Amino acid sequence: MREANMAMDDAADPRLPLLPGARVARDPARAIKRGPSRIPPDVVAANQRERLFDGLVQMVALKGYPNARVGDICQAAGVTRPAFYAHFEGKEDAFLATYRHGTGVMLGLMAAAFHGAGDWRTGVRNGLDVLLTVLASVPTFASMAIVEIDGVGTAARRERDRMLSRFREFFVSAPRRDQLPDELVESVIGGIYVSIYRQVAAGRTESLRDLLPTLTYFALVPFLGHEESASELLPSPESPATSLPCGATVPMPSVGSA
């Protein structure tokens, strides 16, 4: 677990991107200060975009995608409607941009844990540990990206398919990989996703890491066999990664323009 914990410690570095929904969008510390000094436009735009990511995640998790209006997102983020439309064409475009950014952050953390391990088996376990811990630490993002995405439409389903296809990289170096069909890897990835979906949809997001032994076994057994993979079914140790700063629990935003 040392490699995974190192990767998660890196995730706490404030210089690294945070998962959308992990911060209060209307935190006064994030507001653009008015005054005589001119703030570069790109800094203002980046600040607005990040706050809109957080506001969208929080509103979609609170109201559901169909009921979360652009006005709600703007109020949660403390950003005006004209500023919203300067960044996005509409609610769906904003959702997709937030989804791409958030899943990119998540996959980056997983890749760091996977490639930092000494062997493929440990890398898979560490990567899954990071995935489950990160999602559990930001339940609003998990709800938005895993459950609410179903109500967005065709473009969102394509984005989800592209995201899932990126998980194939974790199986390239698997033992006996060249002896097994590609469909097997797709089935493993799909099975892991469905297990996570069921947990999040049932409102058990905070307990996602309980799935780690089963999902690790499921990912390993086609390549290592039952006997070598069975030890993964034993209870896993507690991980300090569960208190990620990048996954700090935040209250739902109050509404009101700023």
From TrEMBL:
Descriptive protein name: HTH tetR-type domain-containing protein
Organism this protein belongs to: Rhizocola hellebori
DNA-binding region: 69-88
Domain HTH tetR-type per the UniProt entry, residue ranges: 46-106
Keyword Protein transport on entry: no
Gene Ontology terms, MF aspect: DNA-binding transcription factor activity; transcription cis-regulatory region binding
Domain of life: Bacteria
TM stretches of this protein: none
Region of interest (Disordered), ranges: 231-258
SUPFAM superfamilies according to UniProt: Homeodomain-like (SSF46689)
InterPro entries: Homeodomain-like_sf, HTH-type_TetR-like_transc_reg, HTH_TetR
Low complexity biased stretches: 231-245
Keyword Transcription assigned: yes
Keywords: DNA-binding, Transcription, Transcription regulation
